[in-house]
Every structure is written in C-alpha cells, then in structure tokens.
Amino acid sequence: MAQNDEEVDRVDDPAVLKQAMVRVAQAQDREAFQLLFSYFAPRVKAVLLKAGSQESQAEDLMQDVMMTVWRKAKLYAPERGSVNAWVFTVARNARIDLLRRASSRPYDDVYEIELESDVASGEDNMFETERAERVSEALAELPEDQRQIIELGFIEDMSQSEIAKKLDLPLGTVKSRMRLAYGKMKSKLEAVR
C-alpha cells in the first residue's frame, strides 16, 4: 500500500481507513498501519486530553491504544461499525482500565488526605466573574467571521473540519481565522491567567 499524496488527502474517507485496517489485520501491513497511526494517534490523544487525562498520561495511553490496534486488528468487524468507532472504543476502554487500576490503589491513611472544598470562596467567584467578563469583551471585539469560528470551536465544541463544513469554508480559512482570533485575544487575556 503505497502512501501517495492522493491517499493521504483521502485519509478521512472511511473506505480508505477500512482498507488500511483490513491490510493490517490480514497481512500486518506496516504502511497501512502507518496511515492508521498518522490519522488516529493525534485524534486519540486529543480525545484523552479532553476527557481529563494529563499530557504524559494521554501520550502513554495513545501509544497503548495504537499498539492494541496493531495487535488486535483481526478483531475489527466492519459489519459492526466503522474503523473510527472501533479505534475510539479501544481508546475509551484503555482509559477506563487505567482509571480502574488507579482507583484500586490503597491509601496509607485516608484521614490524612486533604480534600479541597466543593464550595467556591468569594475570591474564587470574583476571579471567575472577572475572567468571564474579559473573555466576553475579547470575543465581542473580534470581527464577526473570527468570533463565529471561535464560538463554534469552543462553545459548540466543533472541530476545525466540522466548522469548515458547517460554514462552507475551506479548512485553511477556518484555521487562519482561528489563529488570527487567538492572536487578538491573547493580549487581552494575559492578565486573567
């Protein structure tokens, strides 16, 4: 499976991903796995980070997930779902397994564990209110096209490719507008960190 430019461009195509998975399952095809790895590794890591994993933990889990994909590709059943669904199920299960292992660690003395209060202090509330106001002000100062992309990305939790599809814009335009918006907002929000 030669990885030419056309194939790389079509890697979002479910048929290309399915074909690569079948080649890994049947022949342990390294080029097909490289295609799967380059497509899924950053996405799996991003999902793990979004789910609350620390950077190093997400990196380790992503590596484990991709090794599981390599070793267990024969278990993928196309009739039961897409390659995307299968890989992200492997990732979800790996994270659940890690959390289960971590939760079964015994504590030396549970009475010595200091828990943070669930009730926010007045100072925390004040800082949170100030932060929200500054973010709103910074958003309001953006041009409409940039603000719309930031809102879709962060409020509606859409990926850049989903935003491009929804707004009928080239992906490069979405990325460029997002980068410009970040630059404009950065200076306004430096003090709120």
TrEMBL record:
SUPFAM superfamilies: Sigma2 domain of RNA polymerase sigma factors, Sigma3 and sigma4 domains of RNA polymerase sigma factors. This is Sigma-70 family RNA polymerase sigma factor. NCBIfam families: sigma70-ECF. Residues 36-103 form the RNA polymerase sigma-70 region domain. The keyword Transcription regulation applies. InterPro entries: RNA_pol_sigma-70-like, RNA_pol_sigma-70_dom, RNA_pol_sigma70_r2, RNA_pol_sigma70_r4_t2, RNA_pol_sigma_r2, RNA_pol_sigma_r3/r4-like, WH-like_DNA-bd_sf. The keyword Transcription applies. Keywords: Sigma factor, Transcription, Transcription regulation. Residues 133-184 form the RNA polymerase sigma factor 70 region 4 type domain. Belongs to the sigma-70 factor family. ECF subfamily. Pfam families: Sigma70_r2, Sigma70_r4_2.
